[in-house]
Amino acid sequence: MVKPETKCWRNDAYAKVTGKAKFTDDLKFANVLHAAPAYSDFVHARIVSIDTGAAEKLAGVVRVLTAKDVPGINRFGQIIRDFRIFADDKIHYHGDVVAVVVAETREIAIRGAQLVKVNAEPLPAVFDPEAAMLPGAPLVHENHGTNLINTHVVRHGNVEEGFKQADFIIEEKFQTQTVEHAYLETEAAVCVPRSTDGVIEVYGSMQHPFSTRRFVAACLGVALSEVEIIGTPMGGGFGGKDDTAAIVCARTALAAKLLNRPVKMVYRRDWSMRESYKRHPYRVHYKMGVTKAGRITAVQCKIITDGGAYCSVTPWVTWRSTVQCCGPYVVENVHCDTFGVYTNNVVSGAMRGFGSPQMNFVIEQVVEMAAQKVGISGIEFRRRNMVRQGSVTITGQKLDAHKVAMEQVLDTVLREIDYEKKLALCSHGQAERRAPSRHVDQSTSELAETVLGAPIADDELYGVGLAMSYRGVSLGAEGVDFCAAIINAQADGSILLEVGVHENGQGAESAMSLICAEELGVDLNRIRYRRSSTSNIPDSGTTVASRATIMGGGAVTLAARELKQKIAEAFCAKLHCAPGEVRFKDNFIYGKTDGDRITFAEAMREMWLMQRFPFAFGVFKAPHVTWDEHTGQGDAYFTWVYGCQAVELTVNKKSGKVKLLNAVAAHDVGRAVNPEMVRGQIYGGLAMSAGYALHEEVKAPDGKITTLNLNTYRIPRSMDLPEMKAIIVENPDPVSPTGAKSIGEPANEILAPAIANAIFNATGRRHLSLPIHLGALPEPTTCGEGCQ
Amino acid sequence: MKIFVNGKEIEVPASALDKRIVEFLREDLDLTGAKNACDIGACGACTILVNDEPTRICVKRVKDFAGQRILTIEGLAAPDGALHPLQQAFVDCGAIQCGFCTPGMVMTAHAFLLKNPRPTREQIRHAIFKNLCRCTGYQQIIDAIEKAAPHYRRETKARKPAEPAIA
Predict the structure, then answer these.
(1) How many residue pairs from chains A and B have C-beta atoms closer than 8 A?
(2) Is residue B30 part of a domain?
(3) What value does the CA radius of gyration of chain A take, rounded to a whole number of Å?
């Protein structure tokens, strides 16, 4: 149970609201140098030479680093080692860094970077992923032999048979755009050579300290123990501060190591926009067969994505898209082919949602189109096909180890937004609804006033729409999935906690502390979350995949249980009970009766005197998952979460401008550890999805990004967003030691299709590409495109 | 040249006059609360109050502020560290996630509530329009500003208008 005072708690709130929190650029070190990256204007070219002479001559420039200066490995990647710390043989995209200029001031470093000249032979470039797949296309990486990064498949049932059973076929092509994470804090690093032992300390804005350490150590050619990544507040990540952020740290560390001085590199927004990886743009050819009874009989889909110039995590992103290619629906016959492709565009990598927002944009519109063909509501169609307790997914996984809450979250949203009544008010199809054969006991405008609180203006079209999804929790069969926690109780009863997950700004440290306090039955103010360091705790993987609470929280719970066991063994005799009967609550340790008790602080002091450490190390390993890459079958994820979001909007008839009026989201999170922070994740996810649907797009004609700052790359502002309602649904998960599951990404994967569906219900027009551009609308018709 | 920062008179050395004020505050005065996230005045993370007006300072020079009264996030809490009611509301409403926009957002909200202590939610939404936040969707930020408004109503009653917001 969440205590009222801990409904909203953060260990870093005071520091952040007073401006005292020290982000990377706020850190000061004596004798610090500044670094800036140098780019070339090529997008694909063979490097002949890099001329650093003019930069080196500039007064105040201390050194110019290129690939030649890397003592260790210049190429890195979590899957394929193709990412260059510095461009060496070729320029592969416009964001490739050829040199880093280190100077006494940042201004001089920037001026020096402009003086670096690259002599290179331009090569034919390829920007279209489908063109890149054709024979004879220019190869982005010649020794890879092809532009294909990876493929995935799902082979489930027999699609030919499935389509034969179908009465209707829905077949459409969809496209999604490249988008930027737009974390408010750009990439930044300060690296400090420690004079005592030569260890390089790295303070930086990154969400994966352990992969950063691997990048840095490999680049420097030193052991992992010679690099220490020290936890520093991070100004937003959203999946975007993995590869690029780690490379920025590696370049900065190299400068610090070679010059034996602290070096700071803080990215300018245009560098960040130009160089950092983005959300994958998708092209999806989707075909669904349905029966007159509204049952899906088969899905065939082909997914092609532009991975950009380097592999990054394209194979993992596309894997999630493949596993979830039919959304939360039971489909017995599925044939899915997925292709990740190299081009000379900006790198595509991890972004909140990780391959699901693209697919949900497709699926959640296709189900509505299918419902329309069948002649039933989108909601009824979903009910007839959605996963339920014991359903088998398209990868052959039986959903029976947790509560399948798909219908629960759907019903929650329908109720909250009053969906059925509002659907009747949608502008599209009003003529049919007003037809004399239908009994209408209230005029539409009266109903609008009752249900919406205001009439719909003459120049506006009104629509409501929703979308839903299920999502595999954590990494699944993508990778190694385990996490460590250390609880170190002190002799005065205070407690030091550290967990192998990273504070991305989401409140991970706070959630870990709340879980620890609850499990040990002590006040929160006893717990001090240690400043994290890669030298303190084992590599527990990256804080991605919405895995921090379930994996880190699991580790904390297991560590706390181990600690309680140690304490119970030490005090059971004194408390007149067996170790298993010792209870922990309200800062006391109790025996069988309330009379037998000792305060937590006294117990810790006595343990010290007994020479027994109240110290515990907990490890949570994700339950077993399976995957067959050839068939695309297996128990892909050890548990799943369920979410549904709905939105109301108006579309201006003349301008096509969309105004969001209201949004409602319900998510089964297993258990809410810090409820107000869970809601914050939901609101933030809704907002980011609204931007994805309506505004955001990285524009890069010929591979050169032109949307280089926050004036041209438009993320949602307060006025773009409606009032939002976040509803937490709790079905504690049996495989999660805390019962908690995930919310970060589930919240950010379905509002775009909900908006597309609402726009259809307003205008009768389907939008199969993102972002949705409406423009001026033709005179409303009784039935728009997509109608029969 | 002199400026007044968080109630303190600061003599600006001639060498700093052409510096960008955001850098002067952050580097010379170690007031790192104001953030620099876009360099072009597009995101609001550098917002401070200049004579009670919310001002985005990443594009402005120190010399533009001669004799002006500046309030940064560091000057909002009480000298003993007790949070200002607006800051407390941000904490209580869950309005803080990564925290990078928070100082600029709080300062914008403070300036707004000084002028309009009885805002509607729509007016609050409009007031923070120029401050970008990528984490929260603004919902809990608006909740916090709404929650803090009664404090400003009491303040307005207690103090006659036009009194400086800083000591």
Answers:
(1) 174
(2) yes
(3) 28
Last-in-domain residue among A358, A383, A412:
A358
Nearest CA to A466 among A416, A431, A503, A518?
A416
Q: Model confidence over A597-625: pLDDT tens digits?
A: 999 999 999 999 999 999 999 999 999 99
Which CATH number goes with the domain that contains A336?
3.30.365.10
Q: State the residue range of the domain holding B97.
A: 85-158
**Residue B166 reports pLDDT greater than 70:** no
Examine the pLDDT at A111 and tell me if it is beyond 70: yes
Q: Which residues pair with B71 in a beta bridge?
A: B49
Q: What's the average model confidence in pLDDT over A520-546?
A: 93
Length of chain B: 167
Q: Are residues A118 and A133 in the same domain?
A: no
In a domain, B126, yes or no: yes
Query: Are the beta carbons of B11 and B29 closer than 8 angstroms?
Result: no
How many domains is chain B built from?
Answer: 2
Residue B80 included in any domain: no
Are B94 and B33 part of one and the same domain?
A: no
Q: How confident is the model at residue A477 (pLDDT cuts 50, 70, 90)?
A: confident
Instruction: Report the amino acid identity of residue A323.
Output: V
For residue A448, the model assigns a pLDDT of 79
Question: How far is residue A440's CA from residue A438's CA, in Å, rounded to a whole number?
Answer: 6
Query: ipTM score of the complex?
Result: 0.96
For the stretch A302-348, pLDDT in tens is 999 999 999 999 999 999 999 999 999 999 999 999 999 999 999 99
Q: Is residue A718 part of a domain?
A: yes
Secondary structure of A78-124 as H, E, C letters: CCCCCEECCCCCEECCCCCEEEEEEECCHHHHHHHHHHCEEEEEECC
Record: contact B96-A723, CB cut-off 8 A: no
Q: Is residue B104 part of a domain?
A: yes
SS3 of A105, please? coil
Question: Quick one: pLDDT at residue A779?
Answer: 59
Using CB atoms, which residue from A235, A710, A721 is nearest to B137?
A721
Chain B nearest-CA distance from A639, in A, is 26
State which amino acid sits at residue A452. L
**What's the pTM?**
0.96
Residue to substitute from B49, B58, B98, interface A, most A β-carbons within 10 A: B98
A210, A213, A219, A225 alpha-carbon torsion, rounded to 10°: -120
Handedness of CA A749, A750, A751, A753 (dihedral sign): positive
Per the CB < 8 Å rule, is A687 touching B32?
A: no
Mean pLDDT of chain A: 95
Tell me, yes or no, whether A768 lies in a domain.
Answer: no
Q: Cα(A8)–Cα(A604) distance, rounded to whole angstroms?
A: 29
